[in-house]
Structures are given as C-alpha cells and as structure tokens.
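Database export, one record per block. Field names are fixed; values are copied verbatim from the stored entry.
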Amino acid sequence: AHRLAVDHPARVQSLCVVDIAPTVDMYAATDFVFAQAYYHWFHLTQPSPLPETMIGGDPLAYLHAKLGGWGSGGLGYIEPAALAEYERCFANPDTIHAMCEDYRASASIDLAHDRASRALSGTQGKIACDTLVLWGERGVVNRLFDPVPLWQAQCAAKVTGQRLPAGHFIPEELPQETAALLRDWVAQHSPTGAQ
C-alpha cells in the first residue's frame, strides 16, 4: 500500500496502514527485542527453499503459532470459517513460497525503492494523500515504534492515527470497529462522500 501510494499518487485518494511502521524504519531499528518479536522477517527472507521446507514440515503448527501470537492471545478471535480457509491455503506449498517471496522482496527491492524515495527532495517520493494509521495496543508496533511520526515523515499530506485494543490482527480481532473506522475514512476522503 505504501509503494502503491508513492508510485501511483493519482490512483490513491487516501491510505490506511494497519499495525505497521515504514519498513525501512523497522529494519533500521532492529535490535534483540525486535528480532525476537519479528523473527519471521529474518527467517522468511532466507534463500529458497530453506524457510519453505522448514514451514512445510508442519505448516498448520506454524500458522497457528503466528495467528495465536502477536498480542491476540489464541485463535478464538478468528471466525471458524476464516480459520478453515487460512488453514486450507496455508497447507499449499505455493502459498508458503509466495509468502516467503513477499518477505524476501521487503528486505531487498522494497528497501531499495523506499531508500530511493527518501533520497528525493521536497514532496517527491512521499505519500501524497492523507493517511490513517491503525495499530494494536498489544502489538510490537505499539511497544517499539511511534508510528504516526514515522509515517508523517514519509507523507506530504496529513497523517492521523489511532491505537486500538487489539494485537497485530486488528481487522480479525475488531471487525466491526475496523469496518466503521474505514467506512468513515473513505467517506471523508471520497470525492462524492459515498460510503
């Protein structure tokens, strides 16, 4: 979403990022505490097929550990039908490989693009639209980062934010609240005011 807003400003009217600080800032602030909490960022970026093979040994155990961690306190917050779909998809080796490739990109080409954007002057290379930042009070982002100023430094427009009573998986933990916030955000930034 960050790169889409920077690379295609005419196509993005407003942006919402959920439980994340800018990736460059997160990698740059890596210390023992962050590395332990977000070990997967470093594990999944290893060359293929190492992480794929390790996760593929027991994909559901890995999935449940990730979904049950990060401040959510178990799997009870996920609707049974949604959990079943996550499990179905995660049992597919192609899904695991695609996930790893996404993280590999975040630690390579995405960082290169973000650093190049930061090297530009003025508003060039910055998000041009208003941005809403949502993060969970029980999550790593809340414990280790101050997301609103970090996003404001990457945005030429206004950044607002809200900490929510959740862990990392805010839409799954607080579906009604998240939907209401996003509906209001879109309505405020839609040319027609439509919801």
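Remark 1: The longest strand covers residues 130-136.
Remark 2: The CA atoms of residues 57 and 158 lie 45 Å apart.
End of record.
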